[in-house]
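Annex B, item 7. Sequence and structure tokens for protein A, then protein B.
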Amino acid sequence: YLLLNGPNSANSVFMTGYSWYEYPFNSPHPDLDLAQNEINKIISQLIKAYAVKPSDIIVGGFSQGATMAINTWLTESEELGGFMALSPRSLIPTNFWKKQRIKEKVLTSCPPFLLGHGRNDEVLPFSESLELYETLLNQGSNIKWHEFDGGHEIDIETLWSVREWLESLI
């Protein structure tokens, strides 16, 4: 297991902990590209230095980490084992490039995907995740959807869903 924190300390009105890019998010976002390059570099190092099979790597996250997981799927050249995105900012409704890239990726690389979001999320739009889910489902991807009544959080029901999904991959 390798769990990464974002490189930036994020102590503001909006969040605490670590972030991958500054809030609020606008697209395009230069910090997103820098962070994505670092994640892709770490994945390459895992594969080369530790002989980890790409199919044994599962990338996942919550909030900004979920956004980074989606972008990893869209930008990583290796076929990884799966992706999990909980309460992401997907920007699918406003980003034509991502819509086209998703269609291309599903046709060439369709690993298992878990996508979840709270219906009452006050930070990131539930509708974006739902649209991403429907896009992936309509493209024939191997996706599991988990929605719940909560807000911008990971509740116990979601943890069980994540556990069940991970166990199905192992």
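Protein B:
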Amino acid sequence: MNSFNQLLTEMAPKGLATLFFMVLFAVSVPQQALSQSEDSISVKSAAANHIKKLKDGILVVRLATKQRSIEALESTLASSDLKSKLRETLEEQLVAKKYERDSVNNALISAFGGEVYDFSEVYFMYDTSNARFANKEMSGYFYNENGEFDPSLSLEGRDYYMTYIGRTEQSSSTNTKAFVVCDQYLNPLERPFPGYITFRRLLSTAKSGKKKKKAKGVFKGFRIEEIVEKVDGSFEWFYKENH
């Protein structure tokens, strides 16, 4: 009998400990699920808020200057020690790089300036003004829908977002070229907002059903107007889903 009582005495703390952890697990699991659910709702709510703000706000389209690579080529060409064959090759590269830059930028201005995109108001800026945008300078470096510099254009008192040609998330297994959409702090917008619009054919769910004129321009094998139409259609679709 004494041995039996001793065994019960030894088992009691272990039993209480097991019971304690079972109760703790039963309480914590629903709390974790609730927390995850609340986080999901918060992200969806934020995305819906962003698309509504963009609809009434401004999309700033950042254009590439390719300044560093062009200046590097020009600096090399300034050397008097280059052999004629190398100089000829570098000059061809410089012309090709400037041509691609200008072709893409002109096509983006045409497409976003009204020929394809009409979800929101649009300003243009060059990537050399990126620091000014990040520092919340509200005016003085924007271009209108015709690609003309307009000192009267201002972000003051408006909701605004930026988009530029970049790549999908680094963690993505399909890292590819895309229009990246950022907030005013240059943070890419999280899903479910269409913050990474890839250079692929239009998805049926993202088509806006609008008949629009085509803008000319090809970038890395993709037609600019098709990409911008996907941007416009994705925004329209997401807005309707959350309006």
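Comment on protein B: The longest strand covers residues 160-167.
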